[in-house]
Write a structure and sequence with these properties.
- The protein is mostly helical and 586 residues long.
- The protein has three domains: 7-139 and 146-171, no CATH class; 218-422, no CATH class; 435-513 and 546-584, no CATH class.
- It has helices at residues 10-19, 23-34, 37-65, 72-87, 95-110, 116-136, 152-172, 180-197, 200-217, 219-225, 238-243, 245-255, 257-260, 265-280, 285-291, 314-345, 352-365, 377-384, 388-399, 408-433, 467-478, 502-511, 516-526, 537-544, 548-559, 562-573; strands at residues 449-451, 458-461, 480-482, 489-491, 578-580.
- The strands form two sheets. Strands 1-2-5 form a three-stranded antiparallel beta sheet.
- Strand 1 and strand 2 (458-461) form a beta hairpin.
- Helix 3 (37-65) runs antiparallel to helix 4 (72-87) and helix 3 (37-65) packs across helix 6 (116-136).
Length: 586
């Protein structure tokens, strides 16, 4: 049925629609305007149909926004497709249509068979969150939020969003909820299906190489090795501490909570749920997501949740993962907010483009750099290195202040961030030198490290991991190297037999950043593992299945007096890595 509103009435109709939220009030005003009861009812019905359609579009659009791993262009294309499909319908959109769209979007993105039951669950929790959002995130006439952050109304909305995320994770990653045996069987089944779809020798060889690459990535091994410590505090958190000590302390405190609740799985899960509720109901959450801030994502140091299903120790791995996430993503959102608010105070126009730059800087400062605009190279890099994004974040300390792609406002923030990080590194090194030996020569692998007082030759890193980058760059630039054991400086590329080359420098630097399995392979090729011992099948298996912090602690207590070893272990678990240089003298 077509309804035509006379042009002279259009402004009045728009005014009624904008100011009247109640259907009865709208009908009454339409009657007064047109003097025709039937026409007034038809106008109101048409409006309500369109309103319902728009709400359906909003629900699905937000669902698309919340899907991780899909780029902005694809999201916008999906939203337009949804809008077009709904707009052509003349009546009120039925629930089945909405469910089919949700199912269609999810199937296309994740290549999974989403059941109607799952689609219904997604739709129900999405609608619930949308209704809570209308109240919790409402604004006054000045554009300010009516309800304060962390108020119960806001948190209830955040909890609904957290429930939605948990549901999506469960549907998309069912293996994460399985026990270790079922997860392995499911993985084997999946690989079998991959091979069965290939035809010919070339296809099977290709799939075989991918399977080997997946094994080299060994996400479960990474997750195990990264657990049982709080090294994010002085590793990923080093630059956060330099930028905002209060934010660092706040997130360190919150990150302890998962460890304190390990005795109860529901209590442990509740800690993460409340963190997600605070983040998702934040004033800046939607802007952060739209800008590409890495929150609500899986961190590279914990690329799989399978280890969390291991009997007996699963909760420890879960707590480690949750703690890392709470610290890194809480710090990320806090820094993003600080940058945006500071820019606004300085009178800058905080545009979506500027927010994207701030998101990139906040990601990098918290250990999640990005090599390209799309970030698609990350998966490939992580097959070889422990964390390609963390490597880039360290490089960014020296690169971002000179990045020609950054706007003047963002570049100013990058310069200050790098200056603070390097200034703190220098200050810590100088302060430590008042009490113990500190290496200031960047040509030495000991650069940025301090000798643990009373130790034989154990040194602790004071640079948050940045020292090795400075050393590698200095050696390449000056073509010289200082021995960490003899203290002798030698020239690189001298041409003498047995002398070190620039290639050796680059190779050593890269080797130290390798993922667990590639690192083990290299240790066999060199006939020496990282501790200086000859590798065996048994020792390699133990190393791969042992958290790095635990392995370091055993080595420190084996070589040092107990009092010295205790101090060194505490700093190591906080992220100030320990190196025993006596092993290099053997």
């Amino acid at each position: 049925m077509s309804i035509c509103i006379p042009p002279e009435f259009i402004d009045e109709v728009e005014k009624i629609v904008d100011t009247s939220k109640n259907s009865i009030v709208r009908v009454t005003k339409f009657k007064e305007l047109f003097g025709d009861n039937e026409f007034a009812n038809e106008i109101n019905l048409l409006y309500e149909k369109k309103l319902t359609t728009n709400r359906q579009v909003d629900v699905v659009s937000e669902f698309i926004d919340d899907i991780n791993g899909i780029n902005l262009q694809s999201k916008e294309a999906l939203k337009k497709q949804v809008s077009d499909r709904l707009a052509v319908r003349e009546g009120v959109i039925g629930n089945e249509e909405l469910l089919s769209i949700v199912k269609d979007v999810t199937d296309r993105k994740y290549k999974i068979d989403l059941t109607l039951e799952d689609a219904t669950k997604v739709n129900d929790v999405n609608v619930k969150a949308k209704k809570l959002e209308e109240v919790a995130m409402s604004k006054d006439t000045n554009g300010n939020y009516i309800h304060a952050e962390n108020s119960e109304i806001r948190l209830n909305y955040g909890r609904a969003m957290s429930d939605k995320k948990a549901l999506l994770d469960e549907i998309i990653n069912p293996r994460d909820k399985m026990n270790s045996r079922d997860a392995f069987k499911d993985y084997a089944r999946e690989q079998g299906q991959r091979f069965s779809k290939e035809k010919g020798v070339l296809g099977n060889v290709s799939e075989g190489l991918l399977l080997v690459a997946d094994g080299v990535t060994a996400g479960t091994i990474k997750s195990v090795q990264a657990s049982m410590d709080i090294s994010y505090g002085l590793r990923q958190g080093f630059k956060v501490l330099a930028q905002n000590p209060k934010l660092w302390a706040k997130n360190m405190k919150e990150a302890f909570e998962p460890f304190l609740k390990m005795t109860s799985e529901p209590k442990q899960r509740a800690v993460m749920r409340e963190f997600e509720a605070r983040v998702m109901s934040s004033d800046y959450y939607r802007r952060a997501i739209d800008s590409g801030l890495a929150i609500g994502v899986m961190e590279e140091f914990f690329p799989t949740a399978v280890a969390q299903r291991l009997p007996g120790v699963g909760r420890v791995f879960q707590a480690s993962n949750d703690a890392f996430t709470i610290f890194s993503q809480g710090s990320r959102l806090g820094l993003f907010r600080d940058m945006a608010e500071q820019a606004a105070k300085q009178g800058h126009d905080v545009t979506p483009e500027l927010l994207k730059e701030f998101a990139g800087l906040a990601n990098s400062i918290t250990g999640r750099g990005q090599w390209s605009k799309t970030g698609t190279e990350s998966a490939a890099l992580n097959r070889l290195f422990y964390s390609g994004r963390f490597i880039k974040s360290q490089v960014d300390v020296f690169y971002k202040p000179f990045d020609p792609k950054l706007s003047p406002v963002a570049k100013s923030v990058a310069v200050k961030a790098s200056a603070r990080s390097l200034a703190m590194m220098g200050s810590v090194m100088y302060t430590a030198s008042l009490f113990t030996d500190v290496e200031f020569n960047p040509l030495s692998s000991k650069f940025g490290k301090a000798k643990v007082p009373g130790s034989k030759d154990t040194w602790t890193d004071l640079t948050g991991g940045m020292g090795s980058y400075i050393t590698a760059a200095s050696r390449i630039a000056r073509q010289k190297s200082k021995s960490s054991t003899t203290g002798k400086t030698t020239k690189l590329n001298s041409g003498k037999f047995g002398s070190r080359t620039l290639f050796d420098v680059a190779l050593d630097f890269s080797t130290n950043k390798l993922a667990p399995v590639p690192s083990t392979i290299v240790s066999y090729l060199k006939d020496r593992d990282f501790s200086g011992k000859k590798p065996t099948v048994l020792s390699s298996a133990i190393n791969l299945a042992t958290p790095i912090s635990a392995g370091n602690a055993l080595e420190i207590f084996e070589n040092e007096e107990k009092s010295v070893a205790f101090i060194a272990t505490v700093f190591d678990m906080l992220g100030a890595g320990q190196t025993d240089y006596t092993k290099f003298k053997k």
